[in-house]
Amino acid sequence: MKFFADTADTADIRDLAETGLLDGVTTNPSLIHKAGRDFLEVVAEICQIVDGPVSAEVVALDYPTMMKEAEIIRKIADNVAVKVPLTIDGLKTCKALTDDGTMVNVTLCFSANQALLAAKAGATFVSPFVGRHDDNGFDGMELIEDIRTIYDNYDFGTEILVASVRHPIHVLEAAKIGADIMTAPPAVIRQLVKHPLTDKGIEGFLADWAKTGQKIG
To answer: Is 194 a catalytic residue?
Structure first.
């Protein structure tokens, strides 16, 4: 499973990139607002930090304007993925862009039927939102299972990018199902390394080492 960071905070992205665990980044208008920086500037910087796909979202709702915005976004860097909403105009934009060799992330997916449409439109990635799905009384992981089954049935090349990840259990379940990618806030990614027995083991080793009176180097 590939790990993407869902953030526009370049300091967090740099820190995670240094671990070698980061395969890409996803942004959205809300994350850009939180970063408080110029959209094109921050996306360009992120593209320099990571070699993998960096999703940057159009904000238009109609096809002609989406295409105009996409033309600007895809010129930022070779590793930019244009992010479009799962609407008819978004799918039309997806088809046009992927036919022209541009990576496209179709976002705000909440049903397997929507994911099927995204794959048929040639999406590079589809982003089902598991956390928001759970919030509204549905089973986000059941959605991922359904999409995985459909994509495998027809050998679609679209990658399942699990989004709206709220906690480590979402990551675990998505990996067990066979999702291709998960994107999560940096805090959630850092939580994955945590385990009380690991902490306890480190404490014990350090205590015993201190008793030896030795130093390394």
So the answer is: no
Q: How far is CA 144 from CA 59, 126, 155, 159, 160, in A?
A: 26, 11, 16, 11, 8
Please state the three-class secondary structure of the chain as a single string.
Answer: CEEEEECCCHHHHHHHHCCCCCCEEECCHHHHHHHCCCHHHHHHHHHHHCCCCEEEECCCCCHHHHHHHHHHHCCCCCCEEEEEECCHHHHHHHHHHHHCCCEEEEEEECCHHHHHHHHHCCCCEEEEEHHHHHHCCCCHHHHHHHHHHHHHHHCCCCEEEEECCCCHHHHHHHHHHCCCEEEECHHHHHHCCCCHHHHHHHHHHHHHHHHHCCCCC
Question: What is the predicted pLDDT for the residue at 60?
Answer: 98
pLDDT in tens, 6-48: 999 999 999 999 999 999 999 999 999 999 999 999 999 999 9
What's the pTM value of the predicted model, to 2 decimals?
0.95
Under the banding of pLDDT at 50, 70 and 90, the label for residue 150 is: very high
What is the pLDDT averaged over residues 121-145?
Answer: 96
Q: Which of 83, 92, 194, 215 is catalytic?
A: 83
